[in-house]
Write a structure and sequence with these properties.
alpha/beta; 7-stranded mixed beta sheet; 26% helix
Length: 315
Amino acid sequence: MKSLKVVFLGTPEFAKNALEAIHQSHHKVVGVVTVADKASGRGQKIHQSPVKIFAEENNLTVFQPEKLRNPEFLKEIKDLDADVFVVVAFRMMPKVLFEMPKIGTFNLHASLLPDYRGAAPINYAVINGEEKTGVTTFFINEKIDEGNILLQRELEILQDESAGSLHDRLMIVGSELVVTTLNGLAENSIEERPQPHVEHPKNAFKIFKEDTKINWNTPSKTVHQFILGMSPYPAAFTVLKIGEEDKGLKIFGGKFEVSGHDKMPGTLEISKNTFKIYTQDGIYEPLELQLEGKKRMTIKDFLNGFRNFDEIKMA
């Protein structure tokens, strides 16, 4: 089978796994493009992307351009004479870059396109209670996530599965699909096809802090799926009033019950052994949570940290 020369572009763990799969295949990674190192945290420690760490550990050539249109960077990439570029969890690319390789540039997206185009496909698949999702490889064009499909793999979403768990399973399936796509392109055995037109597409817009607040005035199952879809990152939250102070409370998982009641949605019922929040049609009981300024903990440890439950209310 023909070996392709590959330039890989990506940043997080999801991308690192795909890069590792290509590196272990018979294809040759001739260059790796990732985000610039960033200082973060209290000590402003320099952090490198998972993709860069793996690339340097395996003696791969790394590029970290501030701007993808930089003429010097573009010349260096062009001189690599790659057959194909592979993009996984990167950023918007200019046409001058994605049109550079002989075969083209393909992207791995964590959904069954055309569903869930956008930045957060895994989160929204869980939030919306989908029973299945998958991964898609497709050729990049000038429109976001709208290029011709190469290959797809379907994956069942398990009951009560979090976005984090689904992410890890899709990462494995996606990495395998990237190598399968490279093999197919090398053999010229893949017939690309346009994405079908969808009248009302399911979108996966970027998630901001304000999007992660829990709306208790919705059905219990909706609350449950929302929390799972935000877990562990960026994490769904609500606000508690503890004494005179408002504290954010991240919730990572729990259980729900549909039952009639006459409480206002968002009403909190708390004691040494109970933490219930009333929803539109029942109750939700958090099992894993994190109070602002504290570490993530079980509900048992959380409740053990309080003596006066009368001072705790929903803000």
